[in-house]
Structure formats: C-alpha cells, structure tokens
Design brief:
The protein is of the alpha+beta class. It has a 3-stranded antiparallel β-sheet with strand order 2-1-3, with helices on one face. The chain has one domain. It has 3 helices and 3 strands, in the order αββααβ. A hairpin with a 2-residue loop joins strand 1 and strand 2. It is extended, with a radius of gyration of 15 Å. Helix content is 27%, strand content 28%. It holds the Pfam family MetW.
C-alpha cells in the first residue's frame, strides 16, 4: 500500500466486473488473442454446447489464456 494506492489488492474499490462476451470483444479490438478459455460455475468447469452458445448466462467466472496478436 502507498499514498497513491491506499488499498490492498483484495479490497480495492476499482474492481470492474464485465461479461465474458464483453471481454472477448475487448480482446478482439485490442489485438489480443485468446489461446484458451475455461468457464466455471461453483468453481467447476462448464462443458457443452450451452456454455459455448451462452457463456454470459451459463458461467459465473471465466479464465482466459491470452497473448498479444502476432502481426
């Protein structure tokens, strides 16, 4: 913690939640490739067509492996 950053990482008021769809769109327009992704519900991986079609409705969390887009 510092004078400029007076909060610890776990209690900062600056956390911004976003939908999985919004994150994917952000990556697309920002030149970021999504190498792999996992969607979770109750800390368990979600499989199947429903998760692929409706990730915002079928998952509580998303974990992404990302990399800068190669030119």
């Amino acid at each position: 913690m510092t004078r400029m950053l007076p909060f610890e990482w776990h209690n900062t008021p600056n956390i911004h939640l976003l939908a999985i769809k919004d994150f994917k769109r952000f990556c697309l327009v920002s030149g970021i490739d999504i190498l792999s992704e996992v969607c979770l519900v109750n800390s368990r991986r979600v499989y199947g067509r429903r998760h692929r079609l409706f990730p915002n409705l079928m998952a509580e969390e998303g974990i992404f492996v990302i990399a800068p887009r190669k030119r």
